[in-house]
Amino acid sequence: MTMRILRLTPSLEKALLRARSGRDREAERIASRILEDVRRHGDSALFRWTKKLDGATLTASTVWTSCKGAARLRRSLPGRKKSTTVSPGFLRALRHAAHNIRRIAEQQLPQPWTVTVEPGVRVRQIVRPIDSVGCYIPGGRFALVSTLLMTAIPAQVAGVKRIIVACARPSPELLATANFLGIEEIARIGGAQAIAALAFGTNSIPQVEKICGPGNRFVTAAKQLVSHECAIDLPAGPTEAVILADFGNPAWVAADLLAQAEHASDAGSFLITTSISFARRVATEVGSQLKQLDPRNPAHASMKKTGAILIADSRQAACAFVNRFAPEHLSLPAAPNALVAKITSSGTIFSGPYAAQPLGDYTSGSNHVLPTGGWARRRAGLSAADFVKCITVQEISRQGFSRLAATAEAFASAEGLLAHRNAVTVRR
Questions:
Q1: Residue 388 falls within a domain, yes or no?
Q2: Pairing of strands 162-166, 185-187
């Protein structure tokens, strides 16, 4: 199988944008039922849904798991069928990635400031962390260890005191990562029921102020449904990868497209180009590399269902489409300096031929929790700034009051808010 090659017409663009804009009402209906059950019945509902959906029997005494000793190195022991510890190579990778992610998070953290607006009027900003965070870690085929780094480290840099991890199937690598980060609360829960427990609290699971981390369609629906009473990071739909290039190494481009395509059967991977010959070379490479993947790899389904190569009439038209599409991941392997200046909406940009997308997923330091479904037109990816509150402090002296009073009274009168005006006038 090779990728579809399609002409990027206005009608095709509308279809691509429309495909991401619809609400998943079935997921919302199911998630709503689970949320309400857990809200009403707490642990009993949480454990019942966990048994039904994940096949795991939990109690108040077994819902939490320990990460102590998880960082021990893997040993070759006769007869061992399944390792419960981790390899030296993973521990090295863990330290490397964590170092880079922490460096970026430290740069992202908002800073206190003070401004004297005019004589006697001083406004300053203080930065305070939120109290608690729930890090949701998908635990499907494999627990996404990197997501724990990407969610917990910015929270730690921000100063969040309590970090709770929810993962239905925590692997030895996930437990080693939690141990490395000093996180002790790991709950073996997943799905919409985990979101409910974190948002509302149960006897076993404490309520948190914010939930972060991606998940499946039911997790996404649940996060959106609880967002009016528990903060969430951002809506997370199917992952998206766009590569914008007219030339380059076809094998490298194909590899990046497949890297994101293997996340899920509904992942979207697209090459946008003005060169039909380059499109054909990449399509051939995709077909060749797909044959090397396990038939059960989701990339086979996502490339058939969603992936495509789009032929744009011009580079300008290609950039305009990218900005309207606002992809989660955008790669510019060819002529990146000229193209970056034209991009206004993207979760993250990989600049240059060696900026392989998986480097951003794991170890460049840039956060991989990114906006999907066009949300990059209106917000950025997860950062340390998402875990703090910037509070303004207004200091007004008698001199400052005298300078501001008449202006405030004028606005209050214009808006018919006489008590507002009086609160100023009584101080004269």
A1: no
A2: parallel
R_g (Cα) of the chain, nearest Å = 25
Span between the terminal Cα atoms of the chain, in Å: 80
Q: Distance between CA atoms of 195 and 207, rounded to whole angstroms?
A: 10
- Whether residue 338 sits in one domain with residue 195: no
DSSP letter string over 133-189?
EEEE--BSSSB-HHHHHHHHHHHHHHT-SEEEEE-SS--HHHHHHHHHHT--EEE--
Q: What is the mean pLDDT of each run of 10 residues along the chain (428 residues)?
A: 89 91 86 97 97 93 77 42 73 96 97 97 98 91 88 98 96 94 95 97 97 92 94 88 96 96 90 97 96 94 93 96 96 92 96 95 95 92 97 97 97 97 95
Indicate the SS3 state at residue 357: helix
Tell me how many domains the chain contains: 3
Where do we find the tokens 């949480």? 46
Q: Which domain holds residue 417?
A: 397-425
* The overall pTM is greater than 0.85: yes
Q: Is residue 78 part of a domain?
A: no
248 with 196, same domain: the answer is no
148 and 137 in contact (C-beta within 8 Å)?
A: yes
CATH assignment of the domain containing 272 = 3.40.50.1980
Beta bridge partners of 382: none
Assign 66 to helix, strand or coil.
coil
Give a yes or no: residue 30 inside a domain.
no
Residues 168 and 273 in one domain: no
The reply to whether 206 and 242 lie within a common domain is no
Active-site residues, by number, are 328-329
